[in-house]
Amino acid sequence: MRILATTALALVAATATPALAQDGTFTGPRAEVVAGWDHVGGSGEGQDGFAYGGAFGYDHQIGNAVIGAETEILGATTEEAGVTAGRDVYVGGRVGFVFGGANLIYGKAGFTNARFDVEGLGGTTTDGYRFGAGVERNFGKFYGKVEYRYSRYEELDLNRDQVVAGIGIRF
């Protein structure tokens, strides 16, 4: 996990050169792809895997504040002691603060519905909640981001931690 997080942060820092930095708005519809580290665990155990997917959203900037809504679908390669993670659908909102003209720091929260294949039970879907935080860098029409998320699925007593990097386009 440290390697992925360090690599993602280095990528954002390396691409945030003054020559490329462009002040821009964080208002409008957006689409992105994300990929990164996925950890599913419960009852003190857990397993790491790879998460990948895409998201659509809409943000509105008011001064230095940004509010938005988003939906995302992910897949994962994660398997944990009889539990295989499947697709994960998220719907939620985010609130952030613009600094330096082209940077956004934000928090997010919302509803998640995940599919897990559980040994002895077969495939099951379960509802949960997600909290997260991230940093996004605007490059005009395009952007890059690094984000941490925590999801909780009470019914199956499972937690999910993810660190993902994403690239996207704002329309």
Give an overview in words:
This protein has 171 residues and is mainly beta. Helix content is 8%, strand content 72%. It is built from 1 helix and 9 strands; from the N terminus they run αβββββββββ. An 8-stranded antiparallel beta barrel has the order 1-2-3-5-6-7-8-9. β4 and β5 form a beta hairpin. The radius of gyration is 17 Å and the shape is elongated. The two termini are 32 Å apart.
Topology of helices and strands:
Elements: H1 2-15, E1 28-42, E2 45-62, E3 65-76, E4 79-80, E5 83-99, E6 103-118, E7 122-139, E8 142-153, E9 158-170
Q: What's the helix count?
A: 1
- Helix percentage range: under 10%
Strand content: over 45%
Mean pLDDT: 87
- Which regions have little confidence, pLDDT < 50, spanning 5+ residues? 1-22
Distance between the termini: 32 Å
Structural class comes to mainly beta
Rough shape?
elongated
What is the gyration radius calculated from CA atoms? 17 Å
- SSE pattern: HEEEEEEEEE
User: Biggest sheet: strands, sense, closure?
Assistant: 8 strands, antiparallel, barrel
Find the count of extended strands (DSSP E, 2+ residues).
9
Spatial ordering of strands, largest sheet: 1-2-3-5-6-7-8-9
Summarize this structure as a short list of keywords or feature phrases.
elongated, eight-stranded antiparallel β-barrel, 171 residues, 1 helix, 9 strands, 72% strand, mainly beta
Q: Can you describe this structure in just a few lines?
A:
This protein is mainly β and 171 residues long.
